[in-house]
Structures are given as structure tokens and as C-alpha cells.
Amino acid sequence: MLKEAVCTDIIIRALRHAGIDLQALVHEDVLSHPERYENIRKPDYNIDHRRTRNLQIYLKHNAINVFNGNGKPDMATLKPGDIVILDTGIQNGTMFDHIGIVDNEKNDSGNYQVINIWTIGYNTDSMSLLGQEYPDVVGVFRLTHLFDYQ
Q1: Would you tell me the crossing angle of helices 7-17 and 22-32 to the nearest 10 degrees?
Q2: What are phi and psi of 81, to 5 degrees?
Q3: Contact, 135 vs 86, CB < 8 A?
Q4: Per-residue pLDDT at 146 exceeds 60
Q5: Does residue 132 contact residue 75 with C-beta atoms inside 8 Å?
Q6: Tens-place pLDDT, residues 72-95
Q7: 106 with 91: CB under 8 angstroms?
Q8: Got the DSSP string for 1-37?
Q9: Are 86 and 115 in contact (CB under 8 A)?
Q10: Could you tell me the pTM of the whole model?
């Protein structure tokens, strides 16, 4: 369990544990397709993968989009391991400001929980972030590999 990290570290480290180096993949995509990453002035291998906006761009082009785009995902289409991007309402220039992984645990309402680090000072946790008014879901992606991420 991560003690000190940001939300993107959950995704990076979970995929690294599954044998996928998302840090390197994002960096290669930034170098190959700089027009996709207008917010990056100078590519930086050590930080670009730690921005939710950059992960959203990468996933948009390299994963299955399972989001219907209306702010509330179809709970029946979600699977544990899906990557969820959220808008927490913070005025930081992007609506893609938080990210987590759909857990296999469900809350009392029957909605999947999201494994994430909510903010500075929080630890990795599984939280009820889906199927409610806040935060807004702005993306749900599923990786396209021959094996299931368990």
C-alpha cells in the first residue's frame, strides 16, 4: 500500500506490478505525438506520467473507452480494474484532475468502490466515488490486453 503518493501513482504502480510500464509508454507517446499533449512544453520522463490529464490523453488513444459521457457511468459496464477519471471541481484548468482504479469491492448501494489517493495527507483507500452527485466521472477506460488484471 502506498503511504505517500498522488492519485496517478496508484495507476502507474498497479500497472507496473502487472508488467506494464505506463511511465515509459506515456513518455514514448508524448515524444511520438506531441500535438496530443498541448499542456507539455518540454517532455519530462520523470513527471509527465504523474498528471491525470496526460494519462487521460494516453488512455483515450490506447485503451477502450467504456464511458457514455453523461457524467454518470453505466454501472453495469464497469469492471474491476477499469481506470476512472474524475472531475473534483477544483479550478485547476482541467476537468481531468483525479484518477483511480475500480475495485472489486462494492458499497452499500451496490456500486463499485474506487481505489485511489484522494488528496494530500490521505493514504491509498477504496472509496465510494461512483454513482453519486460528486465527483463527476469524466472518463472510464479499460486496457486492451489478452489477460485480465486481477
Answers
A1: 110
A2: 100, -15
A3: yes
A4: no
A5: no
A6: 677 888 999 999 999 887 776 667
A7: no
A8: --SS--HHHHHHHHHHHTT--HHHHHHHHHHH-GGG-
A9: no
A10: 0.87
Spatial CA neighbour of 105 closest among 89, 139, 129: 129
- Provide the 3-class DSSP secondary structure of residue 84: strand
Q: Which of 145, 107, 142 is nearest to 128 (CA)?
A: 107
Backbone φ/ψ region at 126: left (φ over 0), alpha (ψ -120 to 50), beta: beta
Nearest CA to 52 out of 10, 107, 3, 14 is that of 10
DSSP three-state, residue 54: helix
Contact 9, 2 (CB under 8 A): yes
